């Protein structure tokens, strides 16, 4: 992540600062531009701009401009420079945007980020974001969707309006992920595509399905965010959908009906996943492949074998998306303990079906304790949460909205890591050497090239050890089934 070159300086602008002329909003309407009318404090100082009043400043992470200490009085040199640039000062809402000359080597004010003409769409971003450079805002907002991040809820509330605000030329180079969704018209595909379209991390969204993609793409394309959206329909359009992609997410396939196991989907979904991943191997072999289609315990080995067949296999770039298990575990633990689910993190390892789903409650942060009977019930609920939704939907499918959320969380983490953000960790079902199962889910450190390293299983309780031992035979069987399927494919 590039360091920002803009900082906010407080107390620079006097009431004599020039007002700007009216400006045009992204919708084409002319909005009156507010001039500086900052009231003075009891000490005669002007309050800091934007969120720099005490309550709000505390809620912006310090490294993103939050916290009072960054607002500082001007040195003489800075004051001189501020006089020079006064005509370029930008005032929006309660915010004052000013260049931040470096005391060591003052830069010509004209080159300052904050002085560049701002596109109208940026100017209407919420006041509390005005003093942040686009790269920071993007990563801050992306993080705000990550429930593990200890960021204030206010960031999440800013999400949609701020996302809509950051667009165009000043958006950082790094926020340019090209993402394809295969199965985009389905119950998961549509809300997942909506979340991706709403993200500043994504610049191009290509949507593929065997039905309805022109409509889904037309609908999404009207949303006022910068990602371009295009629909692709039918196998002949699949190559164009995939070319140039950085990330491919695959929720294509049939979902469960009441009474079905995930493995019951194998016959239909194995062929769908094998066909789609073969196209990925041909047309975007370098892309990160995120498989949502069930049974994940088999569709990941299928994907790996298909990529091997095409001679482009890279185990660091093939992910079985199990994030929904983590999301559910966090939610259920939070419910039982009266915690904010956004601040709970339960690693879930193993696989993605019934007893192969192994929540490590002993590693939960914050630390939580349950009596054994409550623990057993909790783990059972996490393992059968998908079935809970299938039953509640009574034949109308399986989890779609929570899965779309979980899929988006995983993609955003992946893209963050690809952009160079450090310390990004997600669990995922991958090629693994942690157990004698060739594929296994553990917490992973993600990086620019996919999986940087597996963080392993860590210290676990005897109960969790037993769960792993019980899961391994089923996991091995599902993996073998997937591998055999590809070997026997004509
Ligand atoms: N990994 C998880 O945690 C998780 C959670 C929930 C559901 N799932 C799985 O996700 C899959 C999709 O679920 P859903 O509820 O969105 O199903 P859905 O039936 O609503 O949507 C599936 C979509 O895939 C499309 N499709 C079918 N064959 C295709 C092909 N050959 N190429 C491209 N698209 C194709 C369909 O047209 C449809 O639009 C299911 O396999 C389900 O079991 C996984």
From TrEMBL:
<comment type="subunit">
    <text>Homodimer.</text>
</comment>
<dbReference type="InterPro" id="IPR010097">
    <property type="entry name" value="Malate_DH_type1"/>
</dbReference>
<dbReference type="InterPro" id="IPR001236">
    <property type="entry name" value="Lactate/malate_DH_N"/>
</dbReference>
<feature type="domain" description="Lactate/malate dehydrogenase C-terminal">
    <location>
        <begin position="322"/>
        <end position="486"/>
    </location>
</feature>
<dbReference type="Pfam" id="PF00056">
    <property type="entry name" value="Ldh_1_N"/>
</dbReference>
<dbReference type="Pfam" id="PF02866">
    <property type="entry name" value="Ldh_1_C"/>
</dbReference>
<keyword id="KW-0816">Tricarboxylic acid cycle</keyword>
<feature type="domain" description="Lactate/malate dehydrogenase N-terminal">
    <location>
        <begin position="178"/>
        <end position="320"/>
    </location>
</feature>
<dbReference type="InterPro" id="IPR036291">
    <property type="entry name" value="NAD(P)-bd_dom_sf"/>
</dbReference>
<feature type="region of interest" description="Disordered">
    <location>
        <begin position="1"/>
        <end position="86"/>
    </location>
</feature>
<dbReference type="InterPro" id="IPR022383">
    <property type="entry name" value="Lactate/malate_DH_C"/>
</dbReference>
<dbReference type="InterPro" id="IPR001252">
    <property type="entry name" value="Malate_DH_AS"/>
</dbReference>
<keyword id="KW-0520">NAD</keyword>
<comment type="similarity">
    <text>Belongs to the LDH/MDH superfamily. MDH type 1 family.</text>
</comment>
<dbReference type="GO" id="GO:0030060">
    <property type="term" value="F:L-malate dehydrogenase (NAD+) activity"/>
</dbReference>
<keyword id="KW-0560">Oxidoreductase</keyword>
<feature type="compositionally biased region" description="Basic and acidic residues">
    <location>
        <begin position="53"/>
        <end position="62"/>
    </location>
</feature>
<dbReference type="GO" id="GO:0006099">
    <property type="term" value="P:tricarboxylic acid cycle"/>
</dbReference>
<dbReference type="InterPro" id="IPR015955">
    <property type="entry name" value="Lactate_DH/Glyco_Ohase_4_C"/>
</dbReference>
<protein>
    <recommendedName>
        <fullName>Malate dehydrogenase, mitochondrial</fullName>
        <ecNumber>1.1.1.37</ecNumber>
    </recommendedName>
</protein>
<dbReference type="GO" id="GO:0005739">
    <property type="term" value="C:mitochondrion"/>
</dbReference>
<dbReference type="GO" id="GO:0006108">
    <property type="term" value="P:malate metabolic process"/>
</dbReference>
């Amino acid at each position: 992540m590039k360091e920002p070159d803009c900082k906010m300086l407080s107390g620079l602008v006097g009431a004599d600062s020039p007002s700007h002329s009216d400006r045009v909003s992204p919708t084409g309407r002319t909005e009156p531009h507010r001039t500086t009318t900052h009231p003075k404090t009891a000490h005669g100082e002007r309050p800091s701009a934007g969120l720099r009043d005490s309550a709000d400043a505390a809620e912006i992470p310090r490294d993103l401009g939050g916290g009072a200490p960054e607002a500082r009085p001007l040195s003489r040199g800075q004051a001189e420079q501020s006089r020079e640039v006064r005509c370029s000062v930008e005032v929006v809402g309660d915010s004052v945007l000013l260049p931040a000359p470096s005391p060591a080597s003052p830069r010509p004010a004209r080159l300052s980020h904050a002085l560049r003409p701002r596109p109208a769409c940026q100017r209407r971003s919420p006041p509390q974001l005005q003093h942040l450079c686009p790269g920071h805002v993007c990563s801050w907002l992306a993080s705000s969707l990550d429930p593990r991040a200890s960021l204030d809820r206010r960031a999440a509330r800013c999400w949609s309006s701020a996302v809509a605000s950051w667009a165009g030329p000043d958006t950082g180079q790094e926020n340019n992920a090209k993402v394809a969704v295969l199965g985009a018209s389905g119950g998961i595909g549509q809300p997942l595509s909506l979340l991706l379209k709403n993200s500043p991390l994504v610049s191009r969204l290509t949507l593929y399905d065997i039905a309805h993609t022109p409509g889904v793409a037309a609908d999404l394309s009207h949303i006022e965010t910068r990602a371009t959206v295009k629909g692709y329909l039918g196998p002949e359009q699949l190559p164009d959908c995939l070319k140039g992609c950085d990330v491919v997410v695959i929720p294509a396939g049939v979902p469960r009906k009441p009474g079905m196991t995930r493995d019951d989907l194998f016959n239909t979904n194995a062929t769908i996943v094998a066909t789609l991943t073969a196209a990925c191997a041909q047309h975007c072999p370098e892309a990160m492949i995120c498989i949502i289609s069930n049974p994940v315990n088999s569709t990941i080995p299928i994907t790996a074998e298909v990529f091997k067949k095409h001679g482009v296999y890279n185990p660091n770039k093939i992910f079985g998306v199990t994030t929904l298990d983590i999301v559910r575990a966090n939610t259920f633990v939070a419910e039982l303990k009266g915690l904010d689910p956004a601040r709970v993190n339960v690693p879930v390892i193993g696989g993605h079906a019934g007893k192969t789903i192994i929540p490590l409650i002993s590693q939960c942060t914050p630390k939580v304790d349950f009596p054994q009977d409550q623990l057993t019930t909790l783990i059972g609920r996490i393992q059968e949460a998908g079935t809970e939704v299938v039953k509640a939907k009574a034949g109308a499918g399986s989890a779609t909205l929570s899965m779309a959320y979980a899929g988006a969380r995983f993609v955003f983490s992946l893209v963050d890591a690809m952009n160079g953000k450090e310390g990004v960790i997600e669990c995922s079902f991958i090629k693994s050497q942690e157990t004698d199962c060739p594929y296994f889910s553990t917490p992973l450190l993600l990086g620019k090239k996919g999986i940087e390293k597996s963080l392993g299983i860590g210290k676990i309780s005897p109960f969790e050890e037993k769960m792993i031992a019980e899961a391994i035979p089923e996991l091995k069987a599902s993996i073998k089934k997937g591998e055999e399927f590809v070997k026997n494919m004509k």
